[in-house]
Amino acid sequence: MRIGGRTKQAALDALENMTGHAAPISVDEHLSRIRRAQAWMGANGVAALYLNAGSNLTYFSGTRWSPSERMVGAILPAVGELVYIAPAFEEGTIRKFMRVQGEIACWDEHENPAALLRRVLEQRAIAPNSLSAPKLLVDESTPLLMADAIRAAMSGYVLENAYALTSFCRMRKSEAEIALIQCAMDMTMAVHRAAASILHEGITTAEVEEFIQLAHRKVGASGSYFCIVLFGEATSYPHGVNDVQTLVRGDTVLIDTGCKVHNYMSDITRSYVFGEASERQRFVWKAEKEAQQAAFEAARPGVPCEEVDKAARRSLEANGFGPGYKLPGLPHRTGHGIGLDIHEGPYLVGGETRLLEPGMCFSNEPMICVPGEFGIRLEDHFYMTAGGPRWFTQPAHSLDNPFGPA
Fold first, then answer.
1. What residues are paired with 390 via a beta bridge?
2. Would 324 be classed as within a structural domain?
3. Range of 189's domain?
4. 363, part of any domain
């Protein structure tokens, strides 16, 4: 498939809803996650876990709620049932969003919800005494203002960051999670193909972003979860610039976008050239492709995450980039985990010694930034199996034909 030559309407008309077989995570799976967390707590001397509104609350309970200055969350004791905490005026709405059923402890607007959190723990015999100080893990995504309020209300308790527990549970995806990520990736790849097909001289980055939003809706998402479209020199900035660019022949094009399917993410980047590529563009694109492949080949069960990053950098340095984080070269980590959050641990970066395990999912994007010229990022994701990594989406085919056969 080559770049350009299609109208926006024709490209949209060729897309169809791709979510027909996408099933949300079952209540049974959420309950199994809760049991796994409770087993970890029991083994590590933890009395309870506070889950704040956001992806951790969704992961364990299936309840979707956007975080705000008001405390909405849940307490998961090491033994016993989940208890939600919410403003009293939101109780009915919380019940409608609830997947894993549980009691709701409510607070009114003039009350301190952190004090309510303590009362709920005490009512369940999780309270400090002369012999013990119960350990409470606090969701790592809890806003500082709320975390400070919890700390002030929890004298006698030991408070710790919950990341050790939440990452332990979330970093290895189930078959159901991988299926949802796969669906989202397939949808975004179809959108990438469509976006490439509408490019023409004079089109703006804003027009392409608007098209990608519509295209994601056409394939069954609520729209783009995020979208970065860059032309020319702007592609050398990993996350873009604040001005709109207009496409001219010979420009490097970088499009990075994704969507959600039942809360699970996609995130794919493609870089190519509109018109005839220069020898410089071809050299850098090829070096990026080789670094991405080197990272993939280094990803094996039992290998530390940082070794994947090192493999990508060795490949780049062999082509004259870097060393390390120096430019021109790769200024950021090689990859991030993905799931309910677009960036989640573990990461493919130096210093990350956690070992690769089946079920882990990662981006593979060792971007090359050439200041003042252009940047090339090829980003696909893979998931680990007992036999090694598997791509969610096949890497770019070639610079002249990035999406391969139509």
1. 383
2. yes
3. 8-19+172-391
4. yes
pTM (global) more than 0.70: yes
376 & 361 share domain: yes
List pLDDT tens digits, range 211-239. 999 999 999 999 999 999 999 999 999 99
**E strand or H helix at 382, and its extent?**
strand 380-385
3-state secondary structure 52-82: ECCHHHHHHHCCCCCCCCCCCEEEEECCCCC
Domain co-membership, 262 together with 141 = no
Q: Indicate the number of domains in the chain.
A: 2
- What is the CA 153 to chain-centroid distance, rounded? 33
Question: What is the tens place of the pLDDT at every residue in 12-44?
Answer: 999 999 999 999 999 999 999 999 999 999 999
All residues at 6 or more sequence positions from 114 whose CB lies less than 8 Å from its CB, including other chains: 71, 146, 149, 150, 152, 153, 154
Nearest to 262 by CA among 226, 221, 313, 317: 221
Given a cut of 50, the residues of the chain with pLDDT beneath it are none
- 128, 144, 170 — which closes off a domain? 170
